[in-house]
Amino acid sequence: xxxxxxxxxxxxxxxVAAILYGIGFVMRKKNQDKLHELEKRREALFDLPVLExxxxxxxxxxxxxxxxxxxxxxxxxxxxxxxxxxxxESQIFEVESLNETFRFxxxxxxxxxxxxxxxxxxxxxxxxRNGLKELRESEERxxxxxxxxxxxxxxxxxxxxxxxxEYGPAYSELQKQLKNIEIEFTQFVTLNxxxxxxxxxxxxxxxxxxxxELEDTMAKIPAVYEELNKTFPDQLKEIQEGYQKxxxxxxxxxxxNFQGEIDRVKKRVQTxxxxxxxxxxxxxxxxxxxxxxxxxxxxxxxxxxxNSRGYVFKNRPVVEEYIQHANKNNHQLLIEIxxxxxxxxxxxxxxxxxxGFQQEIxxxxxxxxxxxxxxxxxxxxxxxxxxxxxxxxxxxxxxxSQQVEIDNSLRELRQGEQEAQQKVEQYEFRLRNLKRFxxxxxxxxxxxxxxxxxxxxxxxxxxxxxxxxxxxVNMLEVNQLVKECETDIKGLETKTNDLVDAAALTEQMMQxxxxxxxxxxxxxxxxxxxxxxxxxxxxxxxxxxxxxxxxERVEPGAFKRIESFYFNNRDLV
Length: 573
Description:
The protein is mostly helical. It contains 15 helices and no strands.
């Protein structure tokens, strides 16, 4: 082997050794850095004031579930500060040993395990600290809650001592309840000090509940007692005195036993005072609402009778006069119906209705004659008389309204007859004018349907005249005939105008068509047919259609032009 080869091998070995050393140095440095970071995290975790926080919470003398929760967190911290820290120390020592002996890969794996342990410890310590913080804050809230309840208790105690008269018969029971609450707070302190946290918490919760319940009760009692001791008695006294005065003034009450109602309300007030003595506030409140309603009802009865008296004195003579007035009107209306029925047929049971009015008026008069002696002898309540008068007004108003309606309808019969007579004259005049108008046209004859309409209208007017000349005129029949006459004559007038216009236009068309008579055979034929329809059959519209269509075929537009000229110059044609 040559010297150069040997030198090359030595250099290669040196290079490999150098590279391996460099890699080892880098890996050792990385592991050393991670180890240093772990040391810093361990020291930071160890420096946390967890032990002080545990001692702070321990000094709070927790009870019940709070104490159990604290024991759990304390035990967890003890486990972390002993076994977990010891395990971490062991893992860190192992990393240092592996790193120093150049077992870098194992050291790297050991570092990962140590970091996992570190992460878990940090998480658990955070949980412990948060748990202790929540306990501390919760206990502070509970302490404030307990202190608030104690403050309320002291306020209630002071209020009962300073304002005892406001609680009336409930004073003794309230004192007793305050004493029981004091005993509960004392029992809580004793149990908490002696180390019975569960029972202490139960007693405290009862004391707090009873305190706030008593606060609510005491807040309601003064107003309730004011009603029972002052408001209701004053109102009942006023009602009793008013009732006696009204009796002395000869008032009669519709309530069967008004005094008994007053006595029942008084007894209800006494019962409520008994319930208040037992501090049964809800029962008292419900009863007081009923009592207030009962007192309002008593006031209402008295006020209604007082108001009714004035109404009765004012309206008594008015109702008497109204009944007499209605009776007089009904009597006159009966006479008018009898007189009218001799000349007219009455179609709406006017007589039956007026007889019904008389029965209503007679019944009101009978009731009035029964009521007024009782009023004079103080045997009936004014409110009952007021009700009768108001009902009487409604009945009499309705009767009078219908009396006026019937009276107007009777007057309208005469007026309607006069108007119908005038209509007959107008219809006869219009028919005569139509007849003269048609005769003036000197037509060769009149179509049968026109004559039928003319005679039908004439007969209808004749029927109307006969109906008006009957001994007893039926205006329903007359009015119907008037409508039919008007319809017939209007229709006849339209037919007359149409007939005359058709005849005149036919003549105009034939005169104009003569110019084509010799040059257009079809015009000559149309003129002949139209002339036949006009002169022999008296079908003027058919004659117009015949000549008009033929002329329109020869000279388009001629028909419309002649028609337009005719209607624009009808008076000249």
